[in-house]
Amino acid sequence: MPELSTLLAQVFTGLVLGMVYVLLAIGLSLIFGLMTVLNFAHGALFMLGAYFGVFLLTYTKSFWIALIVAPLMVGALGLLMERFLIRRLYGRSPDDPLLLTFGLSLILVEGVKLIWGKIGLTLDPPRALAGTVNLGFMSFPAYRIFLIGVTVAVLIGLYFFLGRTNIGLIIRAGSRDPLMVRALGIDLGRVWLVVFGIGTALAGLAGILAGPMRGAYAEMGVTMVIESFVVIVVGGMGSLFGAVVAGLLIGQVVGLTTLFVPKAAEIMVFVVMAVVLLVRPSGLFGEAGLAE
Amino acid sequence: MDRRSFLATTAAGAAALSFPAVLRAQSKDPFRVGCPLPLTGPFAALAADMQRGAQLAEVELNARGGVMGRKVEVLFRDDQLKPAVGAQRTKELIENDKCQFIVGGLAAHVQMAINEQTKKSKVLYISTSQSDEISAKPDTSSITFHEALNPTITCRVLGKWAAENLGKKWWIIYADYAWGKQCNQVLQDTLKKSGGTLLGATPYPLGSAEFSTHLPKIQAAKPDVLMNVAPGADNIALHKQVISFGMKKDMKIAQPLLWISYLKEGGPELYQDVHGAVNWYWELQDSIPTAKKFVDASMKKFNLPPGDYGAYSYSGVLEVARGTELAKSTDAEAVASALRKSPTYDHFKGKQWWRACDNKSFQDLWIVKGRDKVKGDWGLMDIVTKVGANEEYDRTCSEKGFA
């Protein structure tokens, strides 16, 4: 048995990793939950967030400007994607937008290689966050603690936006009963445009934030899409709350398996997913029927 | 003959006289070398370097008139770092594109798949990345050659040096696939022989970007040396996370190989004071004539110095050409026995030789470390010491299954 302090350190590291998973998955969860569009380009947009981040960092020399502008750039691209491509596929089988976004992700990854080359880019954390924080039981990267703050801020922001504003009310109503909302004279097209823009901007935000931890390279979205899918499937497709619970759960599963049986850390994630799906086929907090 | 066609003919004739070698080389079937590489995916940077290396060999061979008067063509295919795709691309290179040789492959598991295919098609293969099995029974063959270093040689040399110079209490993190597992085993054996202590060895799945959950227990164990046995983009992610956890000030970091492509991609700060082995580094041009020639050619064509893995593919293509000229044939067995009969060569790093039993190339290697103050764009490493080529660093012929 490891010492208590090691165990504590491990649980804390797993908790923070869980928050990283939540951050990665949240945009995907939002778009699926409200639009039932499975955005397979999520990983590519995540990667674009990191690349735009490096680009902006080179010109502005400010991580903070890059942190705000890069997600906006990715979100703007998301708006174009929704307006000109995805919008045409509403009302068709859910496979169609999935295939479309999968194709788009290939184009984006190859496009990035054409522009920036096949070799990845360097993205460092800002000086202020490069050090460690002494937690008593371990020293922990300041940057990861900052990430918890960002993730919590995003979650609170989304909660208020969806739960407490008029647009949020329309978005939620539109996802429940689009026909009725239209009958009330509301232009749902514009609402979905906004949702898609926010979801893709969040992918971009996750990208620029992940760069300093993981590096920035054209294929960085591949691993991330898998991580995100596991989180939203376990949490329940479309449930933001479920994504948070699942992210934290998976973080602990990875953390504790790495401590005791490192070889099994990867497989355990999928074991947990399989068990959850057997017991609750629509995930921990998913609505039955949403994904059908 | 009218005036116009007379002029055309004489002009063509004059051109032919001025570039005789090139034209003669083009008049016969080309000498084709197929080169499967993971041009996309996490090893893309290394693969790009290898592609440039093979292209330099192609240019050099054609400039001197090709191989036996035949123009040299090197064909590149993307194996996507997948064994099945590697085998398929190799089959196509041999059957559809009529390649007489295969040189390339990066990542142990993909080379094994390529090798299965070349054995089946009776085509000589020079493998250009690390693997222990590729030059051992039952996988190897009389027409399988191995130009690169292997985990045994690299990790014995680096491990011994690290135990003597960096510290004797180690933690190893290794990628859970062929190369990583082999390195881990050899490092552990070497550490034991050097009288050191292994505090822990943890595998992680290849292609992972998250190492945070590995780090608390390493922090708690306080090793002298952390061995980073993670290839490709994983290597960068692990260094980034180790630094962010503030561990670099408490322990020395070493890795079997210090790949220049990843020093470039991850940024030199990440690799400051990180030790590793290399098969080659371009600043060796200051002391080795063939290295200078190779660097000059690369600067001229690509305006950047070749990397460690580009050197392997460069040498591999030149070796199939040398073997063909010695054998006066492209027949795989004939070329293979010609190479074994005159095993010594020097294309980019000083003397190398093929060992007769296993077709393994023996060569010098160097211990290097990430430089504090980089020189220019590519002056990223300091050479710490040279370790001369020695067959004793590899397993013996009998240990590899040769009687």
Q: What key attributes describe this structure?
A:
heterodimer, A: 292 residues, mainly alpha, B: 403 residues, alpha/beta, Rossmann fold, 2 domains, seven-stranded mixed β-sheet, 14 helices, 21% strand
Explain what this protein looks like in three dimensions.
The complex is a heterodimer of chains A (292) and B (403). Chain A is an all-alpha fold and 292 residues long. Chain A has a domain at 19-219. In chain A, 73% of the residues lie in helices and 2% in strands. Chain A contains eleven helices and two strands, in the order ααααββααααααα. Chain A has a two-stranded antiparallel ribbon with strand order 1-2. In chain A, a hairpin with a 4-residue loop joins β1 (132-134) and β2 (139-141). In chain A, α5 (142-164) crosses α6 (166-176). The longest helix of chain A is centred in the first third of the chain and has 32 residues, at 4-35. Chain A starts with a helix and ends in a 13-residue tail after the last helix. Chain B has 403 residues and is of the alpha/beta class. Chain B folds into two domains: 22-149 and 286-362, 3-Layer(aba) Sandwich (Rossmann fold), CATH 3.40.50; 152-278 and 365-393, Response regulator (Rossmann fold), CATH 3.40.50.2300. Helices cover 44% and strands 21% of the residues of chain B. Chain B has helices at 3-18, 20-26, 44-63, 83-95, 108-121, 151-165, 178-193, 215-221, 232-244, 260-266, 268-271, 289-302, 308-327, 332-341; strands at residues 31-37, 72-78, 101-104, 124-127, 144-146, 169-175, 197-204, 225-229, 252-257, 275-278, 344-345, 352-355, 360-362, 365-375, 379-387. In chain B, β6 (169-175), α7 (178-193) and β7 form a beta-alpha-beta unit. The longest helix of chain B is centred in the first third of the chain and has 20 residues, at 44-63. Chain B is globular, with a radius of gyration of 22 Å. The mean pLDDT of chain B is 92.
